[in-house]
């Protein structure tokens, strides 16, 4: 092609007021001209004066951006659309002073009590440059279809009960949300004490190989640990391959 994008801009997820730069690079047979556009609601509008390869931005609200590149012979190409996601309510001290763009969790999921057949929604969010990707887990098992900030199950089953958490990751690293319990029941949902009795009953009646893994990473007088959570995930996969039924509990 006469004009080709060699470096696409990337989506970011940042706190309100954060300053950063979107980059676009292209190559062609003649000199190139750049023009950035922003999508406001349903309208795509030219950004006056935004005619450089780099577009400085001070994050104010979530918007979409693209860059048009053309040569002197009227050959034109557009970059990918990228999303600048802006979080207006971010906890104090975030991002860290020496933040390099690694994911930082700004919204953790909360414990849920849901009746069978009702919808389940868990939500998390993270800042990151580039914007983080998300992966949800239940009882240490990766949920193949749950790769967004919001986990959504339209009609819950008893088997959807368990301990959930999400990993936000980008090219700079990863960060895990807090682990939360989701309780799915019939007309009357069991409370924690009743769950404990049920677990005892399951272990007494069990005839197969069962492994109980407990990973603690939240301590009252010690910084949070991440290794126990990951160890539970890795051990659960290993034990399942060995024929164990695995029950994973976090915190």
From TrEMBL:
Keyword Secreted: no
GO biological process terms held by the UniProt record: proteolysis
Gene Ontology MF annotations: cysteine-type endopeptidase activity
Keyword Disulfide bond included in the entry's annotation: yes
UniProt keywords, alphabetically: Disulfide bond, Immunoglobulin domain
Location of the Caspase family p20 domain: 207-251
Superkingdom of origin organism: Eukaryota
Entry-linked Pfam families: Ig_3 (PF13927), Peptidase_C14 (PF00656)
SMART domains for this protein: IG (SM00409), IGc2 (SM00408)
Domain Ig-like residues, every copy: 1-77, 103-183
InterPro entries: Caspase-like_dom_sf, Caspase-related_regulators, Ig-like_dom, Ig-like_dom_sf, Ig-like_fold, Ig_sub, Ig_sub2, Pept_C14_caspase
PANTHER family linked to this entry: MUCOSA ASSOCIATED LYMPHOID TISSUE LYMPHOMA TRANSLOCATION PROTEIN 1/PARACASPASE, MUCOSA-ASSOCIATED LYMPHOID TISSUE LYMPHOMA TRANSLOCATION PROTEIN 1-LIKE
Record's protein name: MALT1 protein
Protein source organism: Leucopsar rothschildi
Gene: Malt1_0
């Amino acid at each position: 092609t006469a004009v080709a994008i060699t470096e696409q801009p990337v989506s970011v997820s940042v706190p309100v007021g954060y300053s950063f730069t979107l980059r676009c690079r292209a190559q062609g047979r003649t000199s190139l001209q750049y023009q950035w556009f922003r999508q406001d609601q349903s309208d795509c509008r030219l950004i006056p004066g935004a005619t450089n390869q780099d577009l400085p931005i001070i994050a104010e609200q979530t918007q979409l951006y693209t860059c048009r590149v053309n040569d002197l012979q009227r050959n034109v190409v557009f970059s990918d659309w990228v999303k600048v996601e802006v979080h207006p309510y971010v906890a104090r001290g975030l991002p860290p002073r020496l933040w390099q763009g690694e994911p930082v969790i700004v919204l953790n999921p909360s414990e849920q009590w849901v009746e069978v057949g009702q919808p389940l929604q868990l939500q998390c969010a993270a800042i990151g440059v580039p914007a983080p990707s998300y992966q949800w887990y239940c009882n240490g098992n990766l949920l193949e279809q749950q790769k967004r900030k919001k986990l959504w199950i339209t009609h819950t089953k008893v088997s959807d009960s368990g301990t959930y958490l999400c990993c936000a990751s980008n090219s700079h690293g990863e960060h895990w949300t807090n682990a939360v319990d989701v309780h799915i029941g019939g007309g009357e949902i069991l409370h924690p004490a009743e769950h404990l009795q049920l677990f005892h009953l399951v272990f007494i009646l069990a005839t197969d190989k069962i492994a109980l893994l407990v990973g603690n990473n939240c301590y009252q007088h010690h910084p949070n640990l991440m290794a126990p959570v990951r160890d539970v995930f890795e051990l659960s996969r290993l034990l399942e391959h060995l024929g164990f039924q695995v029950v994973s509990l976090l915190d």
